[in-house]
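FW: tagging you since you asked about this chain on Friday. Here's the raw sequence from the shared folder, copied in full. Didn't touch anything.
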Amino acid sequence: EPIDPKTRKIPVIVEVQNPYHSIPPLSFGLYVKVTIKGPEVPETALLSKRAIEWDDELRPYVWSINQDSRARKTPVTLLQEYATDVLVSGGLKDGEFVILDPPTLLTEGTMVKVIER
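HL: got it, structure written out here
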């Protein structure tokens, strides 16, 4: 069933594993808190929306810092948007720094200094 737009809920049937029969069966209509593990998406990063910029063709990118401490325009793909963050993929390497509030006149190759990790 689709998500109810008013309540933002979707009815589901849950099977609770109880191998030792130590809890009574759940009654129909109860609310339960569950954690649903989805597929892992490799090579993604959760970034503040402040870090996302757009080029002239409206393609998203972030400013990252390369090994030589220079700013690098890094194209990304937006996967999921949250209230203040966005999940992105592409371009970023594991452990690479991203500039969260890039200055307006930042250019490719500008020397930068990391002041906060």
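FW: The longest strand covers residues 60-65.
HL: agreed, and The chain has a mean pLDDT of 87.
FW: great, closing this out.
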